[in-house]
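User: Design a sequence. Structure:
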């Protein structure tokens, strides 16, 4: 073994973190290219996208268990009859009571806009990073800047679609966020009620639990 070979192997052993970063970057680029090269709308799906959920750090991945919730929009947003109707129906199946006197509040944020299928991403003009909205907030593994940054991710270019974003968050009596879940994507449906009916259960199926970002379709 010559000196040059020995020196090269020494460099590799001395920089394991650099190698990990390089490999991770290469894998990320490869996965991103693969995702953009195929349609993300499964045949026959009415809506599809990416969803995830997080718990407050002190919960240590222990599920948040609630039997009653008060519904309210996030911040100063207007109440949405369509969102609250979908939440009430889906929570009822999970035996969670809706009560204005509940100790926990389930806040929601809902946005839906018509988009052309040739548009990049879900078509929503939101912050590039949607992880933080105030003190004690929880971020999750969704970033519109990451998922929509110049990539045609959402399928064919034959019909008009609706871009949507739904966020749900449970606050305790002190208004601290202890669980948050988000979904963003596209739908072949056009009314809020029609989209929310299959979408809300996607998030409530993991109510109070953490969930890595994953693709879904309905």
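Assistant: Done.
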């Amino acid at each position: 073994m010559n000196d040059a070979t020995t020196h090269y192997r020494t460099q590799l052993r001395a920089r394991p973190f650099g190698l990990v970063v390089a490999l991770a970057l290469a894998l990320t680029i490869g996965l991103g290219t693969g995702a953009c090269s195929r349609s993300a709308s499964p045949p026959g799906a009415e809506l599809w996208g990416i969803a995830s959920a997080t718990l407050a750090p002190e919960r240590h991945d222990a599920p948040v268990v609630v039997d009653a919730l008060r519904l309210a929009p996030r911040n100063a947003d207007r109440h949405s009859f369509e969102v609250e109707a979908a939440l009430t129906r889906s929570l009822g199946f999970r035996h969670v009571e809706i009560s204005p006197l509940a100790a926990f509040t389930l806040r929601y944020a809902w946005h839906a806009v018509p988009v052309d299928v040739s548009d990049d991403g879900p078509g929503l003009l939101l912050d590039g990073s949607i992880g933080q909205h105030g003190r004690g907030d929880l971020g999750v593994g969704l970033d519109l800047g990451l998922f929509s940054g110049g990539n045609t991710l959402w399928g064919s270019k034959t019909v008009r679609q609706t871009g949507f974003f739904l966020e749900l968050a449970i606050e305790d009596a002190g208004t601290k966020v202890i669980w948050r879940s988000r979904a963003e994507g596209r739908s072949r449906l056009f009314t809020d009620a029609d989209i929310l009916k299959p979408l809300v259960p996607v998030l409530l199926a993991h109510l109070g639990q953490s969930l890595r970002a994953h693709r879904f379709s309905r």
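Confidence is low (pLDDT under 50) at residues 5-39, 125-136, 143-157. Residues 16-36 form the longest helix (21 residues).
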